Amino acid sequence: MTYIIQGETGDWEVVIGLEVHAQVSSKAKLFSGASAGFGGDPNTHVSLVDAAMPGMLPVINEYCVEQAVKTGLGIEAEINLHSVFERKNYFYADLPQGYQISQFQYPVVGEGTVTLDMVDGSQRHIGIERLHMEQDAGKSMHDQDPKRSFIDLNRAGVCLMEIVSKPDIRSPEEAGEFVRKLRSILRYLGTCDGNMEEGSMRADVNVSVRKVGSDELKTRTETKNVNSLRFIMQVIEVEAGRQVEVWESGGEVVQETRLFDVARNETRAMRSKEFAHDYRYFPDPDLLPLKLSEEYVAMIKASLPELPDQKKERFIREFGLSVYDAGVLVQERETAAYFEEAATGRDGKQAANWVTTNLFGALNKLGLSITESPVSAANLGKLLDLQADDTISGRIAKDVFEIMLDTGDDPERIVEEKGLKQITDTGAIEAAVDEAIASNPEQAQQVRDGNGKAIGWFVGQIMKATQGKANPGAVNQMLRDKLSSE
Amino acid sequence: MAALNELTIAEAGRKLDAGEISAQELTQDCLDAMAAARDMNAFVTETPEIALERAAASDARRASGDTVGPMDGIPVALKDLYCTEGVLTTASSHILDGFIPEYESTVSANLRDDGAIMLGKTNMDEFAMGSATVTSYYGPTKNPWTLDDGKDRVPGGSSGGSATAVAAHLGLAATGTDTGGSIRQPASFSGIVGMKPTYGRCSRWGLVAYASSLDQAGPMTKSVEDAAIMLQSMAGHDPKDTTSAPIDLPDFRAALTGDVRGLKVGIPKEYVIDGMPEEIGALWKQGAEMFRDAGAEIVDISLPHTSYALPTYYIISPAEASSNLARYDGVRFGLRVDGDSLDEMYANTRAEGFGTEVRRRIMIGTYVLSAGYYDAYYVKAQKVRTRIAQDFDAAFNDVDVILTPTAPSPAFAVGEKMDDPIAMYLNDVFTVPASLAGLPGVSVPAGLSAEGLPLGLQVIGRAFDEETMFRAAHVLERQAAFTAKPAGMRG
Q1: How far is A91 from chain B (nearest CA, A)?
Q2: Domain termination site, one of A401, A418, A435
Q3: Quick check: is B213 catalytic?
Q4: pTM summary value
Q5: Residue at B268 is within a domain
Q6: pLDDT digits (tens, 9 = 90+) for B383-414
Q7: What is the domain range of residue B205?
């Protein structure tokens, strides 16, 4: 699955690192008691600390620390028992303190790994460089008034985790898969809702290119604040393409910060004034270093839920699923839970087929999420049972499923009320078979002459005659018996 | 009978308890003294209505037997670095024009809750940056101590307004803040007691920040006993300040046993500096003798990194200040001077809003934190700071307290050293080391210069051992028997 850009001077590969900013799901901000909730009228979630009034001091929100540690453990990373909050100093109207409290030299989480299952069945291990906690800034609105800008501090001080990958990603697809996987882990852990539309997750995309076979790291650019999976992949494509062109035309890629222009599908350099900062990091003297004990970390580790990779392994083991199906089913915790409820005590593969093809297809059409599914997991399970014990045929099952989508009804009731039970009474089947043979002597002869296909034709006729209720296996057997014994 | 404003906290407390005086009478005398002394410019804001209202409330509590403690009914002045709910708070800076906080600092709230009466907000060096109370946007404060040369003396700084308020009996006591000596040095210049607690003893919540790792609130009083009484009210753990220590308070007043027999008093040899007036050295020797006379043991000690303390301080404190003062940007409160762009508005506001000394320290601080200089300055300074703290740790293996001069000179005339920041910075040479180490220190008036200006001696204690420090300072105060008064106040 190598992603290659064919240039005029040869083949290029792309080297990608992502810095994902994930908002911690917490009721309160990182250093103040103000609400961290999304929305709200401008400047209604602002404490004296967030507004940086004189003499105000930050106090760490321990819940946020716990979420960061949890996340670190979820990405199999080293937890640093000693970490330090530092001040990143710069002036902007939506940064009331004149500095952002962040972690710089000593982040709370060190190196880790995220494992990706690619569509072709291969696995990729993407290294994590670090995870640190930091405050979000407020929001500047420049489009409300011709002359003035307005500031909304509701977001100011909300806790973000910045998760920095190593430059291990080699294609737009891998980048997309990385973010998808990371999002999945965060949502399993409950540490971030992963909602990119509301800005709970966004990424800075670092891209460089190099000739295939080279292991040099050439100059990279950083495209800031990309807020959807699709855009992240687009940014990589257009930025890598641009860089190849620059190098091949004898130019030099400049290390710079860029922005993604969605409308034009291109990246452009930010004006140098927008980022030319010497941030003057230094340890925040208002906050003591963050010290965690081994016991504290062990306690959090013990409380971790089953994560997607573990769940996937278990699904493969317990339900006999393929790696791919298991991977698809565990991506969202809700889907995995749905599947597990429907599949437990039943044929796992069949349950997986139903969920990934029929259910996903239907929900997709209806624009519903799994939690909004009109067909409950319990009812899907019952439908599988009806099929398994030959109460209904596979074809009828599909019809019942359609009704369930419409009404949300219990499949047993649907089958009962609509009289869809499979005919297993041999007498009734025999009558239908005899009738079919008698009415179609030509085809019957073909079967006797050894034309296997004609048997299928008979089965279809009989199923039609019984409105699909005859057990196709029984029909088949009976046809063979009758047409060979004569 | 002397005017009530000349009483100490302890004396006034006894009279209030005995029903001889009321808090309202006591407060009125202070307000009258303040009105008569406006030329000293000790206050940026006077709050007579609040004072009289709280005095009446205190008297009512006393009448119904609900007095809340030894500060109940005691009129005090607050340095204008303490945010006070509903009362203009300026840090003596133009940039905080019109800033009226909606909140009360923890320390002033503690005092208020213990019944202390706020008289007003005292003048100071702008943002506590200075040693003479001459950098205030509201003009210099005068020291009540004068000589016959007709020149006004500075009260020291940065808590100079508070020092003058206490020395001139405008209040019974005042709060100060001390970052590198801003309580102790003005106390020495003004003939009063000024005490800086251990870093972490008092909450910094609601104090306009100068250098966060050094700033501490403390009492400025007429006696060591008063300092102990007042600190008891001011101090205590505050969950809103994570650098405040979660340690129970001892009974500071009970520590004043008057007995220092067997106490080991260290005399650090490095505190003899070039150019120090002989009379300061002589007073220091006398102080040691006073301790010996009282039964203490004098021990020569060494604090080898002392000479690096001042340069270390003048890297760390401006570094923190440059960041702490970034919030004064004209966006949300205080002064705004418009410009054609956001950057221009920042530049205009900060250029006009900050005085020369504040701008100088912001620039020094910005410089030492800059890429390429950070390791050489800030990181190095932090290492030296650790060494300085280790010096004290080692010394305190051998001694219980350390005795030093408080300042290298008596109060100088207003206008002197103004154009020589280095000479001004030298004022803090004896107070800065204990600040860097986070240790408690108290200046006690111990004598007069040859010309007749007060001189203080500093007692430094172990971290969170204010009790031993107070006990020693109390004995030093008794032995020194400093009774001199400023010229204008001699009966």
Answers
A1: 7
A2: A418
A3: no
A4: 0.91
A5: no
A6: 999 999 999 999 999 999 999 999 999 999 99
A7: 4-259
